[in-house]
Amino acid sequence: MADKEDPKKRGKGKGKSKDVCGYPLSIFFIVVNEFCERFSYYGMRAVLVLYFKYFLQWDEDLATSIYHTFVALCYLTPILGAIVADSWLGKFKTIVYLSIVYTIGQVAMAVSAVHDITDSNRDGTPDNMTFHVALSMVGLFLIALGTGGIKPCVAAFGGDQFSEHQDKQRRTFFSVFYLCINGGSLLSTIITPILRGQECGIYSQQKCYSLAFGVPAALMVVALVVFIVGSGMYYKAEPEGNIMLDVCKCIGFAINNRYRHRSNQYPRRQHWMDWAEEKYDKLLIAQIKMVLKVLFLYIPLPMFWTLFDQKGSRWTLQATTMNGYFGKLVIQPDQMQIFNPILILTLVPIMDSVIYPLIKKCGFNFTPLKRMTVGMFLAAMAFVCAALVQVEIDKTLPVFPSASQSQLKLLNMGSSAVTVNLPGNESLTLNASDKYFTFETEQIIVSVGSPGMTQAIFLKRKSRQTLLIPSVISNEWLLVKRKEKRKEHQMNKQTNNGNIGVIVLYLGDSYCQDSITVVEDIEPNSVHMALQIPQYFFITAGEVMFSVTGLEFSYSQAPSNMKAVLQAGWLFTVAIGNFIVLIVAEIAKLPNKWAEYVLFASLLVLVCIIFSTMAYFYTYIDPSEIEDQFSKKVDEDEDDKDKREKAEIKMVRRDSAESYDDSYKQSNM
């Protein structure tokens, strides 16, 4: 082992890191930190939408809305984190402080999922749901602030640890770094749904969301401790200002200056950014122009993320209505997301080493913008697949009453069949009805037996009820209301083995084995989760062609000192995409989920056409060449200026000499 002695990093901020096999020892702590943090984030996020639906008892629309609001915040806060790190605290302090905030948020989520805290009657359901909702919302806000704030800092901080002569090691570090991201995502998506499926509790046993959130919280504590332990080894660069602030100030000045000189008496300039020349350097203005060309292409991109991030919300909720048996292996609904990281690790090398070279060999110019267009189309195809799956699911789901309807099922508690007459239905003979009858009125007349006994039954709208007909018809008829909200343990049973809604009915007055009739209230799920695999394949293939290629294209088309601006713009498109989910779902208000999937797919196809048109007119550039030409022009201008100054000096000297000669002659005379 040898000490790192990079002359560039001597002095303030220099750590005491050693080199091991050519790599700074300090990066070990950074890599472990990133793995644990990604495990923490993706593990919590994997079970989040089910926590909203089954623990907080929100409907699917509200659960989806809050989920996407959280994801959007996670992609907005990186801009804030980058500005704080570069302009004020530095990367190290920003990571430490925001990781503490992050950890507090994860602990708050774990505590909010302990149902025994407010379960005073010990029935397994929290009695004060406001406490759990408030605590979970605070936790999610802190997590969004923490995970987003450190996102732009950790990778850059790891890159700072390498000396100038360690370019190869730095590239290897980034490969391992992103491998840790996918590894943490994959493992957490497998493990946390299993933890959620366990039952725990002090007074009553319920699904263990506290454990599913507690383990990610523990991993975040480990990430923070490991990162702090390596503090003495890090090179900690001092804040040098944030390029995004300079860019925003320059753009703001150009707009303001153009507005002040909007009169026709002022000559027009070639580009509106040229109005910043009075205050800012021409090279900076030229670099901003190049960035704005790329950011203009970003305008249609949020629609891709609108579809992509629904795999953690709508698709997970779709999986709760499907059969999760893969042989002896049972897949939980929130575990289906593991196909995304698995397919990423599989498709990226296949695309780079097989698909793209094969397309190039066929003579087709498959440019980055064309790849992104195809990626958007594949994402739209994924939602078409999701719509087809939803159509099959809807065939097996029960039809629940609308706001103006009521539903009634009949159960005969006697040992012999009876004849029942219902309004709008033919006379039927039954022990127990196999279906619910739908009525538009709140009061119906039911006649049982022959000769019949008639009673008026009052039904509650938008609910399911069961009428228990006693063995002695003259006795009291009992009307039982079915619970509208399905408990999570029922959902899991339906998903896994189809036992939901099975009622064992004992006929007659004695509990005799021969008198037992099994009534199935809701049929088990028959649509298999394997049908979701094609939509995961299409959305992941689209991600590889869209996201990976998009970042590569963006970086190739912008100056080296503007990478942070493009990264901020890219993350901003993800945030906007998640907000679009809320807007479209709220405006559309479609009654059928398959129709909503088709709507999103159609919108993305439309955006895909717009983007392909924009890409057709885009001209690829070489930023470094433009910068070199601009710098050369600046140098030439400076040389001309120097020559003019020298000429002026010579002229002044000559004029002075001539003036002196004239004065001397006059003096002699």
UniProtKB/TrEMBL annotation:
Chief location of this protein within or outside the cell: membrane
Organism: Astatotilapia calliptera
SUPFAM superfamilies, alphabetized: MFS general substrate transporter
Ubl conjugation keyword on record: no
Membrane topology: Multi-pass membrane protein
Top-rank lineage group of the source organism: Eukaryota
Protein name: Solute carrier family 15 member 1a
UniProt family annotation: Belongs to the major facilitator superfamily. Proton-dependent oligopeptide transporter (POT/PTR) (TC 2.A.17) family.
UniProt KW keywords: Membrane, Peptide transport, Protein transport, Symport, Transmembrane, Transmembrane helix, Transport
Any one annotated GO CC term: membrane
Subcellular locations according to the entry: Membrane
Keyword Metal-binding listed: no
Name of a matching Pfam family: PTR2
InterPro entries noted in UniProt: MFS_trans_sf, POT_fam, PTR2_symporter_CS
Gene Ontology biological process terms from the UniProt entry: oligopeptide transport; protein transport
GO molecular function terms attached to this record: symporter activity
PANTHER family, sorted: OLIGOPEPTIDE TRANSPORTER-RELATED
Segments traversing the membrane: 20-42, 62-83, 95-117, 129-150, 171-191, 211-235, 290-308, 338-359, 371-391, 564-585, 597-618
Coiled-coil ranges per UniProt: none
